[in-house]
Every structure is written in C-alpha cells, then in structure tokens.
C-alpha cells in the first residue's frame, strides 16, 4: 500500500510526537464530546463510569500541553507543567484553608486523587482553562506582538474568558456531577459558589497569562485553531448541560461567549476575502 502511494507521488503526513499526542488527545475528546454532552444533560451516566470525567479532563489538558510543546518546544512543556503544578498547589491551599477560593472539598469522584485530597484531573482542567482562554483571546483580537496595547488586551480578555468558562463549569461540577462541594449556603454567591472563587480565577489567570506570554511570545502559531475549538466546545457542552438542568444564567453566558467567537470568525472571514 505504501509503495503504491509513493508511486502515485502522494506524501503521507508526518508529525512530531508532540503533534501526535495533541491530535490524539483532541481526537479522543471529539469522539467522547457528543456522548458526554448527552449523558450529562439527561443524567444518564452509567454506574461505575464516572472515571470517564477524569479521562475527559486528562485529554483536554494533554491536548493543550502538547499544543504548547508543538509551538514553544521545551519552553512550552515547562510552562504547561508549571500551570498544572501551580494550579494543583493553589487547590491544595484552597482545600486546606478555604483561601482564596472559598471553603470547599472534593468528593473523590475525580480520580486519581493525590495525597491531600486534590485530584490530578484538576491540574489538567487548569491547563484547559488557562491555555484555552489566553490563546482564544489572542485569536479573537488577532493578536499582533508589535501592536501597542495588544499584549495587555490579550491578557485581560484571556482572563475574562477563563472566568467565563469557570462560570459554566462550576454549576455542573457542583450540582450535577458532584465533583466537589462548596461549603457556603447554596443561596449565597453564584448557585452556591462564592464570588471569591471567580475573583481568584481572574487574578490567577491574568498572572499565568502574563507568564506564558512573557516566555512564549511567538507570533506565528501552528495549529492555532486547536485551543479555540477546545474552548468553544467546552463552552457549548457545559452551557447546554446547565440549561438542561434549569440553570439559565450560565446558558446566557454561553450565548455571549459563543457570540464573541462567531463574531471574531466572521470578521476574520471578511478580512480574508
């Protein structure tokens, strides 16, 4: 078969190991995506299959981490590991002290659980939210390194997009899937989630965005669409699941975020034509 392809002058695609990891992880997520959306929307997750949630988060984090390696090499690997480790470290502080997110605890649904009660899958979630938010913001703004003010616009919008995704994720993780429990009364905050959680996410995402942009500021990105698709697909999935469980405010947030992405796509199409 390969000899026939060579005879026909057809070149087989070649990718680096990082690209194969990125595309493989993204492919697994794309395969699971419709089933996960449907099953979570109607509470039909089969008994004993909750580990699939951890696998899904792992695929998302691996796709983002591998994408960083594809574009920034060893620097991308170090940055990805830094986001994962710093995210888990902040979660440890949060679980032990209730600061800065607010008082909460994990319920052992997500696996594996690291010593101290924080699941490894949460580190992968940090990778998705930070990398997805930042590089989606750069795509929306058509980021140009040399343009005055472009960097800080991307950092700020990336942090806002990170918080936007967390606003969709929290009600599902808390009320629908029971990944963790907030210890404040449900009547307080945002569906029982303290506002301090979102303020912390905004500050943490802004700081991590600055770190990533400071160290890995290449203007030309390979596979630039991938973090945008990961971000948009998760916005859609968690937005739909929220609405199917009667959480209408997250549904409105989903609509706003998707409108921003669609508007940016339309502008880029007009500019290219």
Quick structural summary:
The chain has 273 residues and is mainly alpha-helical. Helices cover 71% and strands 2% of the residues.
Quick tags:
mainly alpha, globular, 273 residues, two-stranded antiparallel ribbon
Give the total of beta strands: 2
Biggest β-sheet strands, sense, barrel: 2 strands, antiparallel
Query: Which residues sit in consecutive blocks of at least 5 with pLDDT less than 50?
Result: none
H and E order: HHHEHHEHHH
Overall residue-averaged pLDDT value:
92
* Coarse shape: globular
Percentage of helical residues?
A: over 70%
The fraction of residues in strands falls at under 5%
> Number of helical runs?
8
Structural class assignment? mainly alpha
Provide the gyration radius in Å: 19 Å
CA distance, first residue to last residue: 40 Å
Q: Which strands sit side by side, in order, in the main sheet?
A: 1-2
Could you give the topology of this structure?
Blueprint: H1 2-7, H2 17-41, H3 51-97, E1 104-106, H4 120-141, H5 150-176, E2 180-182, H6 195-215, H7 225-244, H8 248-272
Structure description:
The chain is mainly α. Helix content is 71%, strand content 2%. The chain has a two-stranded antiparallel sheet with strand order 1-2. The longest helix is centred in the first third of the chain and has 47 residues, at 51-97. The termini are far apart. The model has no long low-confidence stretch (mean pLDDT 92).
């Amino acid at each position: 078969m390969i000899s026939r392809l060579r005879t026909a002058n057809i070149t087989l695609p070649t990718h680096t190991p990082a690209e194969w990891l990125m595309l493989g992880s993204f492919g697994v997520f794309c395969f699971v995506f419709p089933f996960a959306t449907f099953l979570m929307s109607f509470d039909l997750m089969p008994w004993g299959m909750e580990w699939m949630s951890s696998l899904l988060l792992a695929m998302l984090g691996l796709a983002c981490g591998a994408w960083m390696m594809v574009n920034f090499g060893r620097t991308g690997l170090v940055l990805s590991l830094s986001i994962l480790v710093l995210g888990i470290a902040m979660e440890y502080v949060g679980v032990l002290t209730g600061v800065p997110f607010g008082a909460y605890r994990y319920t052992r649904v997500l696996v594996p659980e690291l010593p101290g009660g924080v699941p490894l899958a949460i580190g992968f979630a940090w990778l998705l939210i930070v990398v997805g938010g930042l590089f989606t913001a750069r795509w929306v703004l058509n980021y140009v390194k040399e343009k005055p003010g472009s960097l800080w616009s991307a950092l700020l919008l990336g942090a806002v997009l990170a918080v936007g995704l967390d606003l969709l994720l929290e009600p599902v993780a808390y009320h629908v899937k029971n990944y963790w429990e907030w210890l404040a009364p449900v009547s307080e905050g945002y569906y029982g989630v303290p506002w301090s959680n979102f303020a912390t996410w905004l500050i943490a995402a802004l700081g991590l965005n600055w770190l990533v942009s400071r160290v890995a500021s290449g203007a030309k990105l390979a596979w630039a669409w991938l973090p945008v698709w990961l971000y948009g697909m998760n916005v859609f999935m968690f937005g739909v699941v929220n609405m199917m469980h009667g959480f209408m405010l997250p549904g409105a947030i989903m609509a706003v975020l998707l409108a921003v992405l669609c508007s940016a796509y339309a502008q880029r199409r007009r500019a290219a034509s």
